[in-house]
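Long-time lurker. I teach an intro course on protein structure, and each term I like to show students one example going from raw sequence to a predicted 3D structure in token notation. This year I'd like something fresh instead of my usual example. Would anyone be willing to generate the tokens for the chain below so I can use it in lecture? Attribution to the forum is fine with me.
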Amino acid sequence: MTHSPCIGAHVSIRGGYGRAARSARESGAACFQYFPKNPRSLKLKPVDYRDALSCADYCRDQGMSSIAHTPYPTNLAAGTREREGMAASLRNDLEIAEACGSLGIVVHFGHFARMEPLQGYQNIIQCINDTLAGWEGRCKLLIENMAGNHGQEGMTLEELVKVRELSRYPERIGFCFDTCHAFAAGIWNPEQTDELLERGERLAYWTALAAVHLNDSLYPYGSRRDRHAGIGRGCIGAPALSKLLTQGPLLHKLVVMETEKGPDGTHRDEIAAVRGWFGGGA
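-- Reply from a regular --
Happy to contribute to a lecture. Here you go:
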């Protein structure tokens, strides 16, 4: 029988980190994702160690895993004047996530706007270096592939692998693969899933993969539009998502859905449906 990865969803930290973990477990999740602080702001948040340790202890007792997602304004490609604030915010996220016992913090690949591409890539690497300098925690920086709605940067596995390779601390960097983004960017054609798997293997992308954002897509292949749909209710479809997720490179990874909650206010039904792709294995 095939064994499933840890399956869960994004949850709110309203009520604290410990409550978020318990809420995830109540919906049948084996893992979860959360924002470590206000998702709309880079303002630093003091680490509430009592609450964070409550989360870490509960997850350890229940055999759960978690990841954090950095705030939306985070842009690794920001210029010199903004970089210090970006790195400080990312370091703050790492500290909170480490205290919560999380595997890593997910960060979007930077967007360049009107910046020259070479400068943009240099900025990303420098911001990552600044963030990770002196970091000795187990929590990693997890770079997420982009859909292309803010520009073409960060859409390919090659870019993510090269940025990690050129950083000073590759061992502290991992990846988070978003299925909707890959589909929208045109790097994953569900009719040619083997090609994606083989490319990731050649690049050693999968060896650094820590988590998967499992999302269907409201828009068609190659649309470069980042709009998630419920699992099996979008343009990708459950069979294609199931085929990808049950392949070797993605097995045993932390899998988080970023879709709308069900009628009961949880992702219970989606979690159960995805678990069913693995023959009920745990």
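Some talking points for your students: The two ends are 10 Å apart (CA to CA). Residues 80-99 form the longest helix (20 residues).
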